[in-house]
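Dear colleagues,

As part of the handover before I leave the project, I'm documenting each prediction I ran so the next person doesn't have to rerun anything. This entry is a single chain, and its sequence is reproduced below.
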Amino acid sequence: MKRTRVVCLISTVSLWLAMVSQGLSAETFKVAVMNQQLVIEQSKAGKRALEELKAYSITRQKIINADDQELKELQQTIQDGKLDDSAKQEKQGQFQAKLDAYQRRLADFNREIQQKQREMVAEYSKKVQAAAQAVGEKNGYVAIIDKGSEAAIKIVLYHQPALDLTDQVVKEFDRQNK
C-alpha cells in the first residue's frame, strides 16, 4: 500500500511538473526541495512545540508509572501469602478493577498524545507551507517539493544539494512564527 501511494504521488508530481513546464521556458522553470520535518525540528517555534508535546507525554507517563507501581505493590500483597482467602479474593478484585482502569487510562493517554501529534502536524504543515511559499515566491521557484524522509515516504530520490532550501525555509518560518 505504501509503495502504491509513493508511485501515485511520484506520478502526480511528474504530471504536474510536466504540465507546468509546458507553459514556461526552460530558463524560468525553477524547482527546489526542502525537508518539512527538519523545518519543524530546527525552527524555534517547532522546537517549542515539540518540547511542549514531549512535556505533555512525560506528565502522562508519570501518571502511568505511578499506576503501574501501585499495581505491582497490590500484586505483591496478593502473592505474599499472608492474607486469608476472603482478603485475598478482595485484593484480587481490587487488582482487577485497578488493572482495567490502568488499561483504559493507558489507551486514553495514547489517543490523547496521538491526537495532539496530529493537531501539531496539521498546524505546522500549514505554517511550513506558508514559509516555503514565501521563499519560493521571493526566489522565483515554480515548485518546492518536500523531500520526505527515510522514516516516512521518501519522495525525492535525487536532487542536487544546491536545490535544497530547507535552511532558507527554516529562517522564513522563524521570521513568520516568532
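The chain is about 75% helix and 5% strand. Residues 1-9 have pLDDT under 50 and may be disordered.

All the best with the project,
I.
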